[in-house]
Amino acid sequence: MEPVDQSSGEDELIRLLLKRQSELNSLLEVTRAINKNTSTPVLIQMLEVILKNYLQVGKLRFLIEKGNTFVCVSKYGGESENASALVKACQKLSKVKSPMVLTGHRDPILKEYYYFIPFHHKNKPLAYALIGDFNTSGDMVSNDLNFIQTLINVIVVALENKKLFRERLQTERFQREMELAVEVQSMLIPLRLHKDKAVEIGAKYLPHQDIGGDYFDFIRLNEHEILWCVADVSGKGISAALLMANFQASLRAWATVENDLSMVVERLNKIVIRNTKGERFITMFIAKYNEQTRKLSYINAGHNPPILYANGEASSLKLGTTMLGVFEELPFINQGEVDVEPASLVFNYTDGLMDYELRNNTNWKDEQLMEFVINNGHLNPDRFNQTLMDHLNLVIKGKAIDDITLLTLRIF
Question: What whole-number distance in Å separates Cα of residue 192 and Cα of residue 174?
């Protein structure tokens, strides 16, 4: 009976223990780096150093999921493959849940590697690793692959947590932006609407979402004149709300010092151009009424034409110019002027009133709106607005797909 080489067995055990210690130290260093919120490039660099110098992995491709596809975040060794071809090759193995030997694989890209290591969360693939030029002893293959899988899995979890944290921050930032936009817009909407011996005003503002792009305002300029405006800015969110806030401030500033409506509109157009650089536009209807002369002057800047109702008849206020913010110099301005009969109704609205998702073959166009105004123009402004919304909900039975603003004036 031959004697057992006890020293050889002890050497192997010591070597295995030292290897385990090195693995634990590597995992500890990576974990410490993650806890310190180390950047993704540094974590990837640590992975490469451990695989190269400690495990002697000569070839690596590490892909992570990003936006419903995969991107290669780490690669060294061998000839570089086409990025899209590499992704497609790995996705052929998307259902593989454990390390797989690739030797002799039919795919021309995969067969150049020794092992494929997948990483999943609830059956969703998060990352893939391709290992090549990896000459480890037969007894240690299983151990080394398990360590590689554990090491990369720790990094994958860290990267996924970073992504989730960024998404949460983005969500919170968006929510805060929407809250700010709502606050800004609430400051633009008049809290009290005017009513005196000359005019009575009723308004309804129905944002389609938390924050809309509509705006209306009413200003008593002096003892005999009033001015009102209805506008709609392209886009939503805080940027649209801030643009409207600036627009309101500019409108109020120029309307109180400039008698000519055309000059007010020209100045507002320049302000919108300067603030948006042509990336947004505003449709607007602005009107000034003189109680002594009973003259109504107005400019329609690409807005839905308000309807003037008097003595059982209705007409549209269409004269004006193009939308604001489109041209640096407005190509034309046609100011309208009409005589207002006592007890006339002026109905202003934004395009959301006409942008309805209709059902049951119902019809809702400018002709139907004009007919409604003729049939209900005798109502007081608040009652008129509510009756119109009831008509849309109960008769037209449509679904609003945009903000709706109604501004109705009874001029006595």
Answer: 30
Dist. CA 197–CA 200, nearest whole Å = 8
- For residue 400, what are its two tokens? 């609003």
Identify which of 268, 272, 218 has the alpha carbon closest to the alpha carbon of residue 243.
272
Give the phi and the psi of residue 411 in degrees, each rounded to 5. -105, 115
pTM flag (> 0.70): no
369/314 Cα distance (integer angstroms): 11
Please count the other Cβ atoms lying within 10 Å of the Cβ belonging to residue 90. Answer: 24
**By three-state DSSP, how is residue 370 classified?**
helix
Decide if 205 contacts 217 (C-beta within 8 A).
no
Hey, what amino acid is at 107?
Answer: D
Sign, Cα dihedral of 204, 205, 208, 214: positive
Burial of 381 per CB tally in 10 Å (0-12, 13-18, 19+) = buried
Say if residues 304 and 317 touch (Cβ distance below 8 Å).
Answer: no
Query: How does DSSP classify residue 379?
Result: S
Instruction: Return the amino acid letter for 163.
Output: K
- HSE-CB for 195 with a 13 A CA cutoff: 11
Output the tens digit of pLDDT for each of the chain's 412 residues.
Answer: 455 556 666 766 676 677 777 788 888 888 898 888 889 999 999 999 999 888 889 999 999 998 889 999 999 999 999 999 999 999 999 999 999 999 889 999 999 999 999 999 888 899 999 999 987 766 667 788 888 889 999 999 888 888 888 888 887 877 776 666 666 666 666 655 667 788 999 999 887 665 667 889 998 999 899 999 999 988 776 777 778 888 888 999 998 889 999 999 999 999 999 988 878 899 999 999 999 999 999 999 999 999 999 999 999 999 999 999 999 999 999 999 999 999 999 999 999 899 887 776 677 889 999 999 999 999 999 999 999 999 988 888 877 788 889 999 999 9
